[in-house]
Amino acid sequence: MKRFGVGLLALAFTFTAYAASNSKTVDLTGPVQVGSTVLPAGPVKVSWTGTGSNAQLTFAPHGKNPITVPAQILDKRNAETSVSTINVNGVQYLQEVDLNDVTLVVRNAPTAAAQSGN
């Protein structure tokens, strides 16, 4: 029975470590629209679940309720952490978050065609 408990505890640590590897705090230099919510400037914890185009991103700004949006996860090596936005009619929309080993793309975010009115 003791061996089962130790194995269960090890499994719990494995899941905790895995979940921790799927999150990162990024700094937003200004407010950005994500879905129907505006995230304020400052640190925001970003976490993701799923893979490929069947994923979810959760944004948790300090002191605010987290929001979850559909996303696409790309295995892509990036030189630095960065945030890509697009300005549509005076509103900054978040398009993607580039991390060291992954790019998190917000699905249903406006594109350059929306910006130009085409």
Produce the secondary structure layout.
Blueprint: H1 2-21, E1 23-28, E2 32-34, E3 37-39, E4 42-51, E5 54-61, E6 67-74, E7 82-88, E8 91-98, E9 103-106, H2 112-116
Antiparallel strand pairs: 1-4, 2-3, 4-5, 5-6, 6-9, 7-8, 8-9
Question: Short description, anyone?
Answer:
The protein is α+β, with helices and mostly antiparallel strands and 118 residues long. The protein has two helices and nine strands. The protein has helices spanning 2-21, 112-116; strands at residues 23-28, 32-34, 37-39, 42-51, 54-61, 67-74, 82-88, 91-98, 103-106.
What keyword list fits this structure?
118 residues, alpha+beta, seven-stranded antiparallel sheet, two-stranded antiparallel ribbon, 2 helices, 21% helix, globular
